[in-house]
């Protein structure tokens, strides 16, 4: 099962928008939102909620790719998200996510018994390459034995 398939299976909301997972590595995740009139806003572009879900899904994909080998001992959780809508988005939009800290550093904190936090930065672009939105999601890896 690919990371995109796993994300769509475990997070049903991600599957509702027919997101296309184009690239998913520990360094970068690229996810596309097809142009679908059912998810348009009042000006004919993708609704802000659809763009948020697109970007958050890209961040989840890179988190799974980077930390999937840690799932037996920790659960990834989004702690906080901030999005800025920069330009009018029309048609197909693509979200590209990158980790804000080295994965090895995050795992080292987990190894030390900490609950590490790390940002994921996402750019949302139109087909012409213009950045229409920017989002940062702060994630944590919550150890499974937390609270025991």
Automatic annotation (TrEMBL):
InterPro entries: DUF4442, HotDog_dom_sf. Coiled coil: none annotated. It comes from the Bacteria. This is DUF4442 domain-containing protein.
């Amino acid at each position: 099962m690919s990371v995109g398939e796993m994300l769509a299976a475990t997070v049903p909301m991600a599957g509702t928008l027919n997101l296309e997972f184009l690239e998913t590595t520990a360094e970068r995740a690229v996810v596309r939102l097809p142009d679908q009139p059912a998810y348009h806003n009042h000006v004919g572009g993708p609704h802000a909620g659809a763009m948020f879900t697109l970007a958050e899904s890209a961040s989840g994909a890179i988190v799974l790719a980077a930390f999937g080998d840690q799932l037996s001992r920790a659960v990834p959780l989004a702690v906080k998200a901030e999005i800025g809508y920069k330009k009018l988005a029309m048609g197909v939009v693509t979200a590209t996510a990158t980790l804000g800290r080295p994965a090895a550093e995050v795992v080292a904190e987990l190894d030390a018994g900490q609950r590490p936090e790390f940002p994921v930065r996402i750019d949302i672009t139109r087909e012409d390459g213009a950045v229409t939105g920017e989002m940062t999601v702060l994630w944590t890896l919550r150890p499974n034995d937390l609270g025991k």
